């Protein structure tokens, strides 16, 4: 694509046209040649048969949009978002304009890192890059023989994909704990020595090596240490840089131990904050914020009990800095946070929604937020 436009870069294309690519997809060598000739050019994918029946749900007016958006690669656009799905050859697709946007099939769909004519850059949604999530099938609600669907149907079917970036207050900008206070806590050796045992770290001296505690890094020889960064915050030093990363925040180490693999959260600041707060709570540095108790019936499934307690624990951590706010809570994140499988997390969440324990409390952008029973008004009458 021409830099900063929505038009094909005809000077770089064979025969000056992109339509020939519908039958002969571009290869990596050709793409590299394009960027060698002009590093600022944009990129796009040809939806439809040329890309294996790829279809793009291009939403420009989210206030008019209420159809399901299952987790699948998603691009943030200047006017909304664009999610990519696949259809089978037998499915009929309505390629036309809607009051919320378009379905793109057989057309160009611009991808990151292209720049929009208004100067904004297209970016991938957090947790929804092609490297993080597989392309899902287009929901039947978009097909003409099914109809348009509804947001209520989607809520019963599945919880919206996890994104703590939807947290309305950002990272500890309100409430009893601020971002500066968190940084100060993780800059204090006395606090870090309380946190370290939770992570499995027994060493109590900065700069002294110990065996790595990151998942998949277990070994006999010491290969990690605690290190004070230039900003004063004490971080985890991974000598081997196995994933190409040398330093992790202690919150990232705690998150990695839950995920089962290393994670980078510095561009996902609200999630970084909530794992940092959880670690401080587990080390008994901070008390949980009050959260309503929930008495589930005796026949409530085990998955619902685990997810319910996990969600209360999440609110107890988040309400330390954003008291009373609802929170996103998806299958994938719930499985990590609660220590259950994603399937169990999904069953638990569905049961809790169906039984009005998890209560939808609106949306932030495209993410559903939840309260827990007894706190819909943001006030708590029980203690955690």
Count of helices? Answer: 9
Mean pLDDT: 79
Q: Which class best fits the helix and strand makeup?
A: alpha+beta
Q: Give the H and E element order.
A: HEEEEEEEEHHHEEEHHHHHEE
Tally of distinct domains: 3
Rg, Å, rounded: 24 Å
Low-confidence stretches: 145-175, 376-384
- Note the main sheet: 6 strands, mixed
Query: What characteristic shape results from the CA principal axes?
Result: globular
In short:
By secondary structure, this protein is α+β, with helices and mostly antiparallel strands. It has helices spanning 28-37, 151-157, 179-185, 189-195, 250-259, 269-282, 302-318, 331-338, 342-354; strands spanning 43-46, 54-59, 74-77, 80-86, 101-104, 108-111, 123-124, 136-137, 224-228, 234-238, 247-248, 358-364, 367-372.
Give your account of this protein's structure.
The protein folds into three domains: 14-149, no CATH class; 165-169 and 288-372, Arc Repressor Mutant, subunit A (Orthogonal Bundle), CATH 1.10.10; 179-282. Helix 5 (250-259) crosses helix 6. It has helices spanning 28-37, 151-157, 179-185, 189-195, 250-259, 269-282, 302-318, 331-338, 342-354; strands at residues 43-46, 54-59, 74-77, 80-86, 101-104, 108-111, 123-124, 136-137, 224-228, 234-238, 247-248, 358-364, 367-372. The strands form four sheets. Strands 2, 3, 4, 5, 7 and 8 form a six-stranded mixed beta sheet that branches. Residues 145-175 and 376-384 have low confidence and may be disordered. Strand 9 (224-228) and strand 10 (234-238) form a beta hairpin. The longest helix has 17 residues, at 302-318. The chain is α+β, with helices and mostly antiparallel strands.
């Amino acid at each position: 694509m021409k830099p900063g436009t929505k038009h094909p870069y005809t000077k770089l294309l064979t025969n000056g046209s992109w339509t020939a690519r519908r039958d002969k997809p571009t290869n990596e060598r050709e793409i590299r040649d394009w960027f060698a000739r002009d590093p600022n050019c944009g990129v796009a994918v040809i939806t439809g048969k040329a890309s294996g029946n790829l279809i793009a749900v291009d939403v420009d007016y989210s206030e008019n949009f209420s159809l399901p958006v299952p987790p699948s690669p998603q691009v943030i656009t200047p006017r909304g978002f664009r999610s990519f799905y696949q259809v089978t050859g037998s499915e009929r697709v309505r390629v036309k304009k809607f009051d919320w946007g378009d379905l793109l099939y057989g057309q160009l769909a611009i991808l990151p890192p292209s720049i929009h004519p208004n100067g904004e850059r297209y970016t991938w949604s957090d947790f929804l890059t092609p490297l993080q999530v597989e392309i899902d099938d287009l929901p039947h609600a978009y097909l003409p023989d099914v109809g348009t669907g509804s947001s209520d149907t989607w809520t019963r079917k599945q919880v919206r994909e996890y994104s703590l970036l939807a947290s309305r207050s950002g990272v500890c900008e309100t409430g009893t704990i601020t971002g500066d206070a968190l940084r100060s806590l993780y800059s204090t050796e006395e606090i870090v020595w309380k946190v370290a045992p939770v992570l499995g770290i027994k060493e109590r001296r900065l700069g002294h090596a110990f065996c790595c505690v990151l998942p998949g890094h277990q070994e006999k020889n010491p290969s990690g240490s605690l290190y004070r960064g230039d900003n004063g915050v004490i971080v985890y030093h991974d000598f081997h840089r196995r994933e190409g990363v040398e330093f992790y925040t202690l919150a990232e180490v705690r998150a990695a131990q839950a995920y089962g693999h290393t994670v980078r959260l510095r561009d996902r600041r609200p999630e970084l904050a909530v794992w940092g707060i959880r670690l401080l709570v587990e080390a008994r540095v901070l008390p949980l914020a009050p959260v309503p108790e929930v008495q589930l019936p005796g026949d409530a499934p085990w998955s619902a009990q685990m997810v319910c307690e996990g969600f209360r624990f999440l609110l107890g951590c988040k309400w330390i800095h954003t008291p009373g706010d609802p929170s996103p809570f998806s299958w994938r994140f719930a499985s990590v946070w609660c220590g259950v499988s994603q399937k169990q997390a999904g069953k638990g969440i569905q049961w809790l929604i169906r039984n009005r324990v998890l209560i939808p409390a609106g949306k932030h952008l495209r993410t559903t937020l939840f309260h827990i029973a007894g706190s819909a008004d943001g006030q708590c009458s029980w203690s955690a």
